[in-house]
Design brief:
This protein has about 425 residues and is an alpha/beta fold. The chain has helices spanning about 20-25, 35-45, 65-75, 85-90, 110-115, 125-140, 180-185, 210-225, 255-265, 280, 315-320, 410-415, and strands at about 5, 10-15, 15, 30-35, 55-60, 75-80, 100, 120-125, 145-150, 175, 190-195, 235, 270-275, 285-295, 300-305, 325, 335-340, 350-360, 365-370, 390-395, 400-405. The strands form three sheets. Strands 4, 14, 15, 16, 17, 18, 19, 20 and 21 form a nine-stranded mixed sheet that branches. The chain has an eight-stranded parallel barrel with strand order 5-6-7-8-9-11-12-13, surrounded by five helices. The chain is globular and about 70 Å long.
Amino acid sequence: MDHFNYHDGVLHAEEVPLPEIAAEVGTPAYIYSSATLRRHFGLFVQALEWTDHLVCFAVKANSNIAVLKLLGDMGAGMDVVSIGEYARARAAGVEGERIVFSGVGKTREEMRLALIGGVRQFNVESEPELVALSEIAASLGRTAPIALRVNPDVDAKTHEKISTGKSENKFGIPIARAREVYARAAALPGIEVIGVDMHIGSQLTDLEPFRQAYGKMADLTRKLRSDGHDIRRLDMGGGLGIPYERSNNAPPLPIEYGQVIRETVGDLGCEIVIEPGRNIAGNAGVLLASVVWLKQGEGRDFLILDAAMNDLIRPAMYSAHHDIVPVVEPPPGASVSPLDVVGPICETGDTFEKAMQLPPLGPGDLVAFRSAGAYGAVMASEYNTRPLVPEIMVDGDRFAVIRPRPSLEEMIARERLPEWL
């Protein structure tokens, strides 16, 4: 469910008509619904109300400080994978005790800064990282709470570029070596073993891979406890998918996901940490764009938009689909025709959809990419010297720009000429 619906024939974000935002901010622009963010976060809290828990928003999905503050004010923790994301979470008012530091390539400086600033736990990905964290914590006279990320070798049956739980993926410590590495961690100075971490991938639409992975987690936890480790927190990762096509069968609900957690590890008496990102932010955002031209080609027609692959790279990178809808609702029974929806960048890869059935559209008409609130703005770039797309947050009948579009002058002013030119 989201809060982007037609009212009187015009697509609205909550109570704000999208043409009103376009008139003030221009296009392309990302637009987020506060009501949708709140609702989706609340569903995960409800799914875990049976146990001690913390829902940590995966900051990599949408790192805008306004989004983080909205969720943080509701009690969300944050899952970060860089010191930059850590700094954003802190700037949004989230204290270190609610921040989980994940990521396969943490640097020594990132570890040091997080230890000084405060952190709930490090999800340690490798033995070299573990040793480095021990050295840094000991040098600071601090103790680093850790969970080892264990790779359970479970196929999440998702896109190969976002699968993280198979043995050939770069993430985590092989489950066959987990007890050995935990024993090493317990012997290191400055390290406190508190939990186990797993994350098997993103955009999962089937609960069975979760069930398989969490069953392995439960078995490992019992073995680690028998080895003398005080395992009191289980970080289950995230990855629950969203419906990118409204015609598709809906993915599992958070309450169903929570039930799988309960059935697999609920008897262990551990605090449960989960790290949803896409499922909270994905359907809470749209990318608003304008039609530049309708171009007739040889055997196909092209709808050329002012949004491009640098604004929304998921279709080019993952062959991902986003429903694209006209902002002015077509009348019932309106004719449709197949159009290739493309952007203005000088690459054939700048194609959002081929042969998409759309009603008549012309220059200046507005369209909206649905389900664009996660992995949209955070992955945007200035390729072709196109300004970063602005972000807008809607709350009821009001809206605010939460990241402005930079001017060309501002973009160019960031660069420097060497003295010899």
